[in-house]
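YM 10:42: DNA-binding transcriptional regulator sequence, as discussed on the call
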Amino acid sequence: MNRMDRLMAILIALQQGNQTAAGLAAKLEVSRRTILRDMQALSEMGIPLAAVSGPQGGYYLMEGYQLPPLQLNSREALCLLFALEGLTRYADTPFNSERWTVMDKIKAILPRETAETVHPMLDRLEVEVPKRKYTVPHLNELLDYASSNQWVSVFYHSMNNRRRLLIHPLRIYAANGFWYCDAYSQTHGEQRIFRIDRMTELRPEDPPEVGEGDGDRHQGKSEPQTVHIRAKLTYRGMLQVERDEHVGEQISAVGNEEWLADFHLPVSEWHWAVQLFYALGTEAEVLEPEALRREVCAKAAGLLAAYEANHT
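YM 10:58: structure's back
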């Protein structure tokens, strides 16, 4: 990014609200000193900048100053259309019609030269999203509850249970073709991740009393117990484990075609770990803890016994 593009990017960022020099430096991938020089240059150009010191301070534009509408360059248009293209691959979203109409509007306003540059590149870029068949009729409702910091009662259909849960939605995100809600569950007494397509019958609830049940964990007064897991992975095993958002970054190469997964897992997710390494088969070997090795072996032995019994 050249200096003029960077100055314009700073102005656009300032139109959204206060910006610190450190925050702008991180966003634009330059040093804090460079941002300070850019601020000086903008002031000398007559841009009405002001600054507030302190933790909540930063630079801002004086009230009443607005930039005229700006055209997207080819890279910006590609970035935006690429992101929207990924959203269209989800079976259901909070923006089912908007995701298409906004793409059409962006393409319609692009100058011809920009469009001719963007479209061939867009044809060769792809966000890989597994094809799923589901609907999330309560996604918008849950999004409203999460944004308003509202506790919610939901009827949840898990693989093992169907019951009502009291949860506090913390964030909503899309991954692997599904929509998930990261929430504190008063019912479980810990933070958990829930598939939103498995939720029905949502209704707002009053927050539980502080200290009720295991609610003190939600206030950050204690940390959940964890278990240290180490496992060797083959190349294929590494590709599968790195997809997991929680442990995918805890993998390191230790040799030729060999990787090591080294992470701490909440005790409550023990059965998930057993199923993970059992499913990986020969693509992984648990090194520790010994109890996890034994459970994976026992699960494999049970499968072998079932096959042998059916064969005879």
